[in-house]
Please model this.
Amino acid sequence: MKHLFFIYIYISILIYPIFGQESNIISNNLEKLSTIKLSNGFKIILIQPKDTNLVFFYYHQNLPEVYEGSKVAYGKLTSLLFSSGSKKYNKKQLNEIFNKLNIKLKTHYTGLQASTNIDNADTLLFYLSDIIKNPKFSEEELKYYKKNEVDNHYASRMVDTASSIISKKILFGKEHPMNNNISVKTINNIKLSDCKQFYKLYSSPANSYLVIVGNYNEKAVKRLVNRYFGQWKKKAKNKPKYKTPKIKETYVAFIDTLDLDYSHIHINYPLSLIINNDDWLSFQVMNLVFENELRNTLINNYQIAEKVNSKYYNTKNTGYLSIHIKASTNYTDSIINETFEQMKLLEVQLLYRTVVNEAKRKFKLKTKTNFNDNASLAAMALNIVRFDLDKNFYSDIRIRIDNVTDDEIKLAAKKYLLPKKSFVLVIGDNEKNKDELNNIASNTSVEFYDKNLKVYKKLDKGFGSEFIIDKYLESLGGQKRIKKLSLLSIYTQGEYILENNSYGVKMKTYHKGNKKYYMQLTMKTPTVENLLIQKQIYNGEFGVDSTQRGQVYLKGLELEELKYKSYPFIELYRIKLGFKSNFVKTEKIDSTEVYKIKITSPIDKEFFEYYDLKTGLKLRTIYIHEEVYPITKTIIDYSNYEKIKGKKVLYPHKILIKKEKIVIKFLVIDIETKPKIEKDIFKIEKPKVVKDK
Model:
């Protein structure tokens, strides 16, 4: 026997308005629709077209949006299981009865539909009521629909599946109906008991509609539905409520694919706008105008994108706008900025007539459907009642689209294009896109996701070299605390390693008022306990450098370099002193993710600093010595940050210096913030001549 129960999917009934058929057919029928509401809340919508012997029934459950977790799709499958029959009449019995009476019945994701001739309408209504009130869900039917759902899932998989998943997760939170992302795993997790529980919780006369299309006497309808549905018990309200989230400021998420030569850029934000909203029509036209303007800007004018579209996705209660751009990885930053600029421009710019007319034409094309008359009329009638629309809503829809004004389009742009409250998702190659995203991070925060959609790195808003240094100072203890440490003595001991020879070293350093500096480095040798290796003094005006070869008065660039050493925390004063810094990239030191920045001193000496992404602490400095040949470099590593005694400020207590064949290991033994300093320790006899040649 031929299977009489088929899936009939009416997603558009839930989400989008139904248009279609000629306006005179719609107006003649929908203007005369009537409604009946039973005491238990069950609602009947009756449409009585002339000249028809058929009666069409459409049962719709206005089911609440529920987060389904690891069993996504079990709500959808529950309605399909009406095909199992009722507890009184099994599927085989119903098939025999319906075949005999020429009754056709189909199930869909929100209920079922059926049709027959007028003579059998009363009989069909009886069986429908039994199926709806007392369904008998079967394991066999569930297995059948689960297989169909899996097949549909594979058939409808899109390139931007990951973008959809991560967008909804970030926008709406983990446990929100918008985050119901179907997969083969969630389908396979569904059990018959889940569907029975869903029906028990949410199927109720209070959220049910029965649309009847046919020349069916209203009194007879009222009498029969009271008889068949009047005793259906009303259930307590069990409708979870979910709020549409709000984005306070723009932020960016990046999914690293590693294998794309282009990027998919999605600019998304939550938006609640349903068909009964006064702005609904103007928003739809505006969005098409915006899409056209953005496409023209990015593809035709600047030639930095390959594909542009803007779509609004929504359910009954919430939704989001998603602007999707496919482009080369080299233009991510520019595309985001240009998109935001176009969003702001639309509310003030002159609208070209051809662009507006084209948008209206496209929207009117979307109003056409391929549904048969009865199904289309039922869907439209249902929307009219559910959303409290005017009965003429569909008959003059195209006229009202044409009547949307430029001012209404601009007002919709102002209200619903929200560049400052957008979530930006970029899917592409991290390495190819990193410079672009570092630029973006100067204005907003950026999160990096791996292929499992887990965050593995984050660039905070305002990101850049100055941000990195500020974060470092905050990690040490904060600028206010650090500024108070203008008088310091630091005593270190360590090991000086030259090739295979090792010597003990000691270093004493004094900083006073960021203007005076003293450093003495001594070495313990087999013959000398404290052999002077180097001593430097800066008194705020002059500087000397002493070694075994004698004392040299410093001048010019060398004096300037010594002056910078007088600052124990020079990062606080670099901008004031004229240093320039630029972010280079993120990389790894061993297994630690670090920011690499380039510092250029006022005397044009360049060096690189590396800061831990997580802690913000400085881990390394590298000096490149280009003035010598062959070019060499000095690497200084900082570790074991500990608090200075009595202060809430961190200082690295292990310092490792590597240069060619030399390695120096320093361990900080003591730091004093109120040291006793010898009276003449910074004293320098004024040299006879201190000037550059």
